[in-house]
Design brief:
33 helices
């Protein structure tokens, strides 16, 4: 929607003009100036050589370090960029600009937690700095946390009601949270303040389309035509949607076909919908098929996503109209599984859909119902939200599961899983007792596994081992169970048994680097430091930015009195865990050796 990373020429401008110059030799300044000129001449390799000379000449030359960091960021050398940015923060720990610089870079590479830490640290140093507040708002907006973004946007606008960036970001947040009138009000302010920001016009058009004010949207797009503004793929999509909303399907087709190489699933989706309205079922099916194929390509896991459900739903309509009832029913079930609420939709733009009965008939041989498909959809969504730590959303999905069938064992297991994430271990055990009593759906394996985790957290290691052994007895091929067993033995101060258990997991999944690191931890606990170092070397060879591997290897080097190597590893780990007090203490200790 809006790009956070700045173009490199702008980085150059900021590097040269925005920060104070610190003590450095005249020769270092000459090297820096030459590097700057070479960057402007598009000679980055030569420029980097001059920058390195400047930094060797004056190691604390912050402007040179900053420019090099921005160059590394621009060419996607993440490790080198972070080294320089972290060095700047260490050189000037009170510098808000450096914290913002590193935080923004972390945000660009989607390390949101680390970016948040830098921005909040900057906020502690300057609570009314609009750049800091805007950075936090932008971060939360990018991380899809709109309510958190709004908190900081309101603070900015309270301090300065005319802050353009805050109005602009808030407009997009309002649009994404379906508060279209509020979004339009902010867009109006932005238009009055800066008439040539055409992203604001795009926002306006989207809001009008969402409000089904298609004529208003088309008026906005006419400005693009009059001003000869370069159009992007998304512009063609929304322009076409505006005509589609007006039932002007021929014009809609015209705009949907304008992009040379369409990459948006929605373009194929709306092409399919438009062909359907023009009674061209063959082309409609072809475009909807393309939309589904594209969705699968975009999803790295290769599985369906919730975004696919409207496509399946519409393809069900087209197939039903084309007389392909079985295929139509299968598509409806898939849509229902991905987005269970869709089953409540009774019509499609005025056309009654007689598909639910057909779908149930199709499922009868499998002893299934529409509700059973909906239930599995809600359960899977609850599991997904739990895995990402979104416990409130997971809880809401479980409540939907209970509304369909409150006697399902898996519902109670899911509640236990959420309780474990929240650290409510006794509650988790109570839910698992309920799951065991539930008359519908067996969940013995999951019950045993989660009981083991709960007892481990409660420090009841004998019971924890009893239940993980039970889970393994049910399914001896699940490697993560052996990893959990190893962890329980480690917590119970039995490192030899922990090693035996993790080695069983590694036999099943020798390339699982998490298991390799666990083996290193347990090996150290058993005094096998060289084995731990070998494990960490293996991980680092495959993942050069694995901070945990550097940390564990550093501990092993420290235990074997190789303090220089330990210091290097702890410093490497600190680049990723830069605010970890334990690491700072270890680094101080190693420097004193």
């Amino acid at each position: 929607m809006f790009k956070i990373a700045l173009p490199f020429q702008l980085w150059l401008f900021l590097a040269f003009f925005s920060l104070p110059t610190y003590a450095q030799t005249p020769q270092a300044v000459a090297y820096y100036q030459k590097a700057f000129d070479l960057f402007e001449q598009d000679k980055p390799n030569e420029a980097l050589l001059e920058l390195n000379k400047a930094i060797v000449e004056s190691p604390l030359y912050e402007e040179a370090i900053l420019l090099r960091a921005r160059y590394f960021a621009d060419i996607d050398e993440q490790q080198k960029a972070m080294q320089d940015l972290s060095l700047l923060v260490r050189l000037a720990p009170q510098s808000v600009p450096y914290l913002l610089e590193r935080g923004t870079y972390l945000q660009n590479i989607q390390q949101f937690d680390e970016a948040e830490t830098d921005f909040l640290t900057a906020l502690e140093k300057d609570t009314i700095n609009p750049e800091v507040l805007n950075a936090l708002a932008s971060l939360y907006h990018t991380a899809e946390l709109p309510q958190d973004a709004l908190v900081y946007l309101q603070k900015i606008l309270k301090l300065n009601p005319k802050d353009y960036q805050a109005h602009y970001t808030r407009a997009w947040v309002y649009q994404e949270t379906k508060q279209y009138d509020l979004a339009l009000a902010d867009a109006k302010f932005c238009k009055e303040a800066k008439k040539d920001d055409y992203n604001v016009l795009r926002l306006e058009a989207i809001c009008y389309i969402k409000k089904e004010k298609y004529d208003e949207a088309l008026k906005v797009f006419e400005v693009f035509r009059e001003k000869k503004i370069k159009l992007f793929e998304e512009d063609f999509l929304y322009w076409g949607i505006a005509y589609y909303g007006k039932k002007d399907y021929k014009n809609a087709l015209f705009y949907f076909f304008l992009p040379e190489k369409p990459s948006f699933t929605d373009l194929y989706y709306f092409l399919g919908k438009t062909y359907f309205q023009l009674n061209d079922h063959k082309n409609a099916l072809q475009k909807l098929d393309s939309a589904i194929v594209l969705l699968k390509k975009l999803d790295e896991s290769g599985s369906e996503t919730e975004l696919a459900s409207p496509v399946y739903y519409d393809r069900a309509i087209v197939r039903q109209k084309a007389g392909k009832t079985k295929e139509a029913s299968a598509d409806l079930l898939q849509a229902c599984y991905l987005t269970p609420e869709i089953v409540a939709q009774k019509d499609y733009e005025g056309n009654v859909i007689p598909l639910l009965a057909d779908a149930i008939a199709l499922l009868k041989p499998k002893k299934a119902t529409i509700d059973s498909v909906r239930l599995k959809g809600y359960q899977d969504r609850a599991e997904s939200f739990a895995l990402t730590g979104e416990t409130n959303r997971a809880w809401a999905e479980i409540q939907k599961c209970d509304q369909i069938d409150s006697l399902q064992a898996r519902n109670a297991v899911l509640r236990a899983k959420v309780a474990l994430i929240l650290g409510k271990n006794k509650d988790a055990l109570a839910y698992l007792d309920k799951a065991e009593r539930s008359p519908k759906g067996k969940a013995d394996e999951e019950i045993a596994y989660f009981r083991a985790l709960a007892y481990q957290e409660l420090g009841e290691f004998v019971k924890a081992k009893e239940h993980i052994e039970k889970a393994i007895k049910i399914n001896q091929y699940e490697a993560s169970y052996y990893s959990t067993w190893a962890n329980i033995e480690y917590d119970a101060a039995n490192p030899k048994k922990a090693l035996e258990a993790i080695e069983k997991a590694l036999k099943m999944q020798p390339q699982n680097l998490n298991f390799v690191i666990e083996h290193a931890i347990y090996a150290q606990a058993d005094g096998k430091y060289e084995d731990a170092i070998k494990d960490c070397n293996k991980v680092i060879e495959q993942e050069s930015d694995n901070a945990e591997a550097y940390y564990q290897r550093g501990l092993a080097y420290r235990a074997t009195k190789r303090y220089k190597e330990a210091l290097a590893d702890f410093q490497k780990a600190e680049q990723y865990f830069h605010d970890e007090p334990e690491l700072k203490e270890l680094i101080r200790e190693m420097k004193g050796k």
